[in-house]
Amino acid sequence: MSKLKMIVTLFVSILLLAACGTGGASLDSESSTSEDDNSTATDIETSVEPVEIEFWYGLGSVAGETMESIISDFNQSQESVIVKGVSQADYTETWQNVQAALAANNAPAVFIGGTSLVNAYGGDEGIFEPLDDYMDAEDFNRADLLSVFTEANIVDGKTYGVAAYGTTQIMYFNANVYQEAGIDPDEAFASWENLAEASEKIQVDTDAEFGHMIMWGYENLRDIALSNGGQVISDDGTEVLINSPEWVDAWEFVRKSIHDDKTMGIISGGQGWEYWYRTIDQVMNDNAGGYVGSSGDRGDLDFTYIDARVQPGMGGNSPAPIANGLNMIIPKAISQAEKDAGFQWIEYFTSPEVQSFWSMTIGYIPVRESTMQVPEYQQHVEENPYAGIPYQQALHASPEFIDPTGGLITDALAIAADKVELENISAQDALNEAAEVAQQALDDHNNQ
Questions:
Q1: Which of 80, 199, 420, 431 makes an SS bond possible with 243, Cβ 3.0 to 4.6 Å?
Q2: At residue 9, does pLDDT exceed 60?
Q3: Which residues, 6 or more positions from 343, have their beta carbon under 8 angstroms from its beta carbon?
Q4: Model confidence pLDDT, tens digit, residues 343-368
């Protein structure tokens, strides 16, 4: 299997490469024999023609443009692998298209997918390639990866995905709007209850239509429930808890803010990430005080007047939003040469220097501890405190919930969220219905 030498150029070289389009650090490999077909990793290096692979990702706007730039840098940094980036509308469409490609026997070598996907389709009988042999190579430095993003990718004792970047939803706000309303952001974001009061004040004292924008989807509502002391299922894995008072109170708070008080707004629908960027525009254009968004939104924001804070708690509870990884996954069905080439690309992207550049540009949480030692990254966080907010939140975040039913619990939550957020149905009614569906799914799973 191929091994990638550690990138030897300084991070500033990466910046220069992005600007001038010249080649970067060279990639090399040591000869090793594949257990599957006796091919060697040096076949990639000595081949007359480089191995061409496709990498599929569901990133939009600045994130997508930055990924294209990194792919270009990788292709120019060595001569053994050519990566062709194929952009998708979002993560969901990426997986749908991968499924279709697998059926047609033309799957990409690497694609971006969530941890739940890894757990659903990994394992000995699954369709993803185990990556431990690659990751255990000395040059890869597996121990340097943040465990919060790696442990969830282990299925039946094997690893089926490498986190490309971590994400968590944080609080972004328009400092000009807050200043005009005379609101102290630290006080406003001390609790969700405080934010509700601040949202009302913003409406009264500024021209903003909303004090805060709720991001459409169950994830934001889930985070608020967890920060109100809630759990998805019981510790023993037998009982669904999504209609507990902690969940109902949190979701009813959101319903009331959107539909009764009308101090918080929500935008839904559209193609791909359209709803997301329309929500951001509300805050960027002074029509809302703030919103909850991904740590990866940073490339789309103007931090001359946008700032950030960690998510607050509710009901006197400590904040506990989820932090999760988006993973680079290799399908099992492709050729060994494509797998080797795919991991060569994975290793490049997860190097400390590239992670630093990616995080500084986009805002996602880097997956390697050593990224914190890259001088440019250290300086960036010191000069731009908002850039360190996602990492701060990750320190007390909840781990990603892995749905044991293969997505039926989260599907029930998504349906309930639309009822609360869009249809103005009470949280109690929506969550009771969701809990009934989810409990049946969990019982069926446990009784298999």
A1: 431
A2: no
A3: 1, 2, 131, 134, 330
A4: 999 999 999 999 999 999 998 999 99
Distance CA 30, CA 318 (A): 49
Bridge partners of residue 292, in order along the sequence = 171
Here the tokens at position 47 are 């081949």
Domain positions in the chain: 11-167+324-395, 169-322+401-446
Closest CA to 435 of 257, 223, 234: 234
* Class of 169-322+401-446 in CATH: alpha beta
CA distances in angstroms from 158 to 36, 98, 118, 134, 141, listed in the order given? 17, 22, 11, 12, 17
Residue 14 has pLDDT above 80, yes or no: no
pLDDT digits (tens, 9 = 90+) for 15-33: 333 333 333 333 333 333 3
- Residue 228: partners with Cβ closer than 8 Å, 6 or more residues away: 192, 246, 247, 249, 250, 313, 314, 315, 317
- 11-167+324-395 against 169-322+401-446: fold identical: yes
Q: What is the pLDDT of residue 146?
A: 87
* Closest by Cα among 62, 57, 132 to 328: 57
- 5: phi > 0 → left, psi -120 to 50 → alpha, else beta; which? beta
CA 172 to mean position of chain CA atoms: 17
Q: Which amino acid is at 58?
A: G
Question: Model confidence at 392, in pLDDT bands (50, 70, 90)?
Answer: confident
* Sign of the alpha-carbon torsion through 157, 158, 161, 162: positive
